[in-house]
Give the backbone structure.
Amino acid sequence: MDDLYRDEILEHYRHPHNFGTLPEPDAVYEGANPLCGDRITLMLGISEAGVVDEVAFTGRGCAISQASASMLTDSIRGKPLGEIAKLGRQDVLDELGIEISPARLKCALLSLDTLRRALEDRIAWQASTEDGVA
Amino acid sequence: MTDYDVEALRAEFPALALEQHGRPAAYFDGPGGTQVSQRVIDAVTRYYLTSNANDGGAFLTSERSDAVVAEARGAVADLLGAASPDEIKFGYNMTTLTFHISRSIGATLAPRDEIVVTTLDHEANVSPWRRLADDRGLVVRTVDIHPDDATLDLDSLDAVLGPRTKLVAVGLASNSVGTINPVREIAARARAVGALTYVDAVHYVPHGPVDVRALGADFLVTSAYKWFGPHLGALYGRADVLDALPAYKVRPAHDRFQTGTQNFEGIAGTLAAVDYLRSVGRRYGEVAADAGEGGRRAEILAAMRAIQDYELTLAARLIRGLTAIRGVRVHGMAEPSRLAERTPTVAVTIDGVSPREAAQALGRQGIFAWDGDFYARALIERLGLYETGGVLRLGIVHYNTAAEVDRLLEALEGIAADRGARVAAG
């Protein structure tokens, strides 16, 4: 069972889904794991209605960090922001499906962390421009 | 990639076969220095047999010496995630490198400038800065710890950082209690006030991956003998920071920060130690060769991840066992949920038994462990353990086994029980 999941992770890692950049993203964040240097840059295109209609990432690092980003970007495409905000650590770990050692949790959750920060930054940016207008 | 095979790795380390009174030696002294693989021994021997000369000459052995230094710098650059081999400098050891570079850094500082050190650090990342402060009229400020779990108090960091702060000296992990420090965060706060960050990574490097650029470290020092190589120190300095420093060196020397004739045989052995780690990565890790990482760096990262995962299983076993022994106290983080915040280096005391007595009792059984303060004098004092001989330090590295951990726990149980029996009889 574990091997099956492991193969799926390696497949996502070797051929990541949504790998690339968006020309005009509505939200961007570069997340990094400070000790090993795993990196993910996540870009989101968000519609007027608050739906993530485009998503792309680039990155480098271990199989778990990159596969996790590939899977997470698959799962948020087409979803409203309200639903994405509810995604938790366990959802990401369930999706990966293998046992993650404590040392590797940061690798597995880098994509979720990056996603949250991308959305926080966007909200902060919107607030600051609204302040500017007022 | 196959499952981590500790016995296959152990077979490459001749010293692990040592016996004492018919029992195999159990090395829990890794934080003080590790054993070396046959590759390292062979590389040192081969250097003497085929390459022994000073560098910079126009003949075979000198050219080979130049080549081994260049290759080893590249290897250590990949171990640490440096941008270029030119950012790596070799020296006698971390302490000597730090005293040396502190002189250069000091030449750029003015009286009343401030340097920040921590209570958690090894003296090698404290004393050079204190001496520099004495020489140049600088002010040293100290970051305190939370004594309950031996982690750095970041509020106390904010309290000492200011416009006069020029350098923050901090360890990546504590050599005594194993705490891994949030160095990226610390370096970011240092940078925000215009200060450089000098990281002592000597204890951390054998236990997990390092990326100097992701950490935001301006300097980072390590010692090959802690990661299965010879007694040699290496310093990473960010290129633009090094270029801006005045160097103390003899006039014609071609390298600004490597002074005098180098320990070429040690550098050859260091290169072999990195090659050993690469081989661990190829065998037991997931090598990210197609993810934009160069081959050697990818192999090293794969090795360090595999090693980290394996060591964590042993650390969990050790700490669980220690907390179950009556009379044994763990100093530092002991919660299973916080294993990823520490290295597998565990400091303990045993009620009624001095650390030296405990180390002697273990030593008689062929179990090697250090006692004392390990030059983390300020920490041991802060924990109130200096007067009683410090702590017993149980250090796990990637060649230790679960059976060794069980043997250590059994021995400690015996030492604690003997003491309990003596107290009851008295």
In short: DSSP finds 14 helices and 17 strands in chain B. The domain at 40-274 of chain B is CATH 3.40.640.10 (Aspartate Aminotransferase; domain 2). The longest strand of chain B covers residues 165-171. The interface with chain A takes residues 81, 180, 182-184, 208-211, 213-216, 286, 288, 290-293, 301-302, 304-305, 308-309, 312-313, 337, 339-340 of chain B (CB under 8 Å).
